[in-house]
Amino acid sequence: MQAEPLRADAERNRQALLAAARAVMSEQGLDAPLDEIARRAGVGNATLYRRFPTRTDLIVAVCAERMAEHVRAVEDALAEPDSWEALRHYITAAAALQARDRAIGDLVTLEVSSAPEIERLRVRAVRGIQTLIERAKAAGTLRADCRAEDVLILLQSNAGLIERSKQVAESASQRLVHLLLDGLRADAATNGPLAPSPRRMRAAMRERSRDFGFEVPADDRRPWAR
Length: 226
Description:
Blueprint: H1 8-28, H2 34-41, H3 45-51, H4 55-78, H5 83-100, H6 102-107, H7 116-138, H8 148-165, H9 169-184, H10 198-211
Helix pairs in contact: 1-2, 1-4, 4-5, 4-7, 5-7, 5-8, 5-9, 8-9
């Protein structure tokens, strides 16, 4: 049964809440105060909870377009013929998205299987990232022990730096990415510890997802990069 359309005033409130949530979450991350979102939207908290009963409902409504931006960064990189430049293009673009929008900085490091509209985009992005990695390894430009989990670690590191570096976040992020990209090159590789296993990384993502109210399986054995 199709849901009835919202009354005009209810739809205005919903759009105001979505616009405010995009702005506040972009500035402060997905755990931004809901009171602040309601205040900026010019509505009461009761209206916010009526339209979006949980934080997860609001995140899903706001963030599908954010994940779509991340997918576009992957697919733009896949169009680059040089395998190293393609991987560099993606990592640089993804890190810049995180610096510009803390919501996406959080989003790309979460387990979102309970939000199918976002999960579909996440899986599409991860498959593209895996392709970028395999191409660069085959060309001999990317260190042979690199895995998709290494890219996740890089993005998690960048997200943490952005959260803490405040006014210098953009330039600090650019410097971090430059240093880490140098470390991914095959000609700079040395023996060292591997990234945590896909299962352990997934568990860490699930734990963080619970902080935002996402429902996640108790024992999800799928790797981050399917």
